[in-house]
Automatic annotation (TrEMBL):
Signal peptide: 1-24
Name the record gives this protein: Gamma interferon inducible lysosomal thiol reductase GILT
Residues covered by region (Disordered): 228-279
UniProt keyword annotation of Glycoprotein present: yes
InterPro entries: Interferon-induced_GILT (IPR004911)
Claim: Glycoprotein is one of the keywords in the record: yes
Organism: Corchorus capsularis
Entry GO MF terms: oxidoreductase activity, acting on a sulfur group of donors, disulfide as acceptor
Length: 279
């Protein structure tokens, strides 16, 4: 299967330091019962995605949601990173699927930060992804709000707090952190969604994430989702030892980068994305 190479993110005209996401935004509100994993035993699953990439949306709603339908979530530390092939140029973000995607990436990042409990923000993002797929492309901010506001109401989240995060510029700060983290992936991502389990990229086997999470889990309380499954060492054998390369301009300012619209996942297996939204 041929995959589109991941877009190399160039950050131009906006200097900022590499900042790791704060621990407070990544704390998943661990359930504290004897049948659940100790927080130190939990397996980290990081999902790098775009809010309007149809393959990302499909994975979130059809695959990753299953971790909350069974008990796999009890051993998970889930990290969602809404950035993907977006770029930063001239003090603004540009996204492959238009301004609507940049807006929704930021809204979802705000919700992750405001409600760090993983089930809380995952439910919102799952709802938002489903609604954006159902409503299709929209052109105005008011229409964009109708994608996510019903989801915030459904899960008891303050729409005013989310808007304040977006309007204040704090949402953009979160996006810059996601941009840095995505650019620092080693190896770089090849397509979206890009799933990493405890620093092990799953490549095209990402839909079998349960297998890798269960293999990585070293705690005492094995969830039902991991029982009666037979694992092999083939997954470990596929682990890449690739080193990322930093592209440095030979002189002068870097060229204006162009967002990619063909870099979610192979078109042969999933319907194409909706047309881009015009600014």
């Amino acid at each position: 299967m041929a995959y589109c190479p991941g877009f190399f993110i160039i950050v131009a005209s906006l200097p900022f330091m590499l900042i790791s996401l704060s621990e407070s935004s990544l704390d998943n509100g661990n359930l504290k019962t004897s049948s659940h994993a100790n927080k130190h035993d939990k397996v980290t699953l990081s999902l790098y995605y775009e809010s309007l990439c149809p393959y990302s949306s499909s994975f979130i709603s059809n695959d990753l949601a299953q971790a909350f339908e069974n008990d796999l979530h009890t051993i998970l530390k889930l990290r969602l990173v809404p950035w993907g092939n977006a770029i930063i140029y001239d003090n603004r973000t540009e996204c492959p699927h238009g301004e609507e995607e940049c807006y929704l990436n930021t809204i979802e990042g705000c919700v992750i930060d405001l409600w760090p409990h993983m089930m809380k923000h995952f439910n919102f993002i799952d709802c938002t992804e489903k609604r954006s797929s159902q409503l299709g492309p929209v052109k105005t901010t008011e229409d964009w709000e109708q994608i996510w506001i019903p989801c915030s109401e459904e899960f008891g989240m303050s729409a005013d707090l989310i808007k304040e995060c977006y309007d204040s510029g704090y949402g953009l700060e979160l996006q810059l952190k996601y941009a840095n983290e995505t650019a620092s992936l080693n190896p770089p991502f090849d397509f979206l969604p890009w799933v990493v389990v405890d620093d092990f990229p799953l490549y095209d086997d990402y839909q079998n994430y349960t297998k890798y999470v269960c293999e990585a889990y070293k705690g005492e309380h094995k969830p039902k989702a991991c029982k009666d499954q037979h694992f092999s060492s083939s997954g470990v054998a596929r682990k890449a030892s690739l080193a990322s390369e930093v592209r440095k301009p030979e002189g002068g300012p870097p060229p204006r980068p162009s967002p990619r619209t063909d870099c979610c996942k192979p078109e042969s297996t999933v319907p194409k994305a909706s047309p881009d939204v015009e600014p």
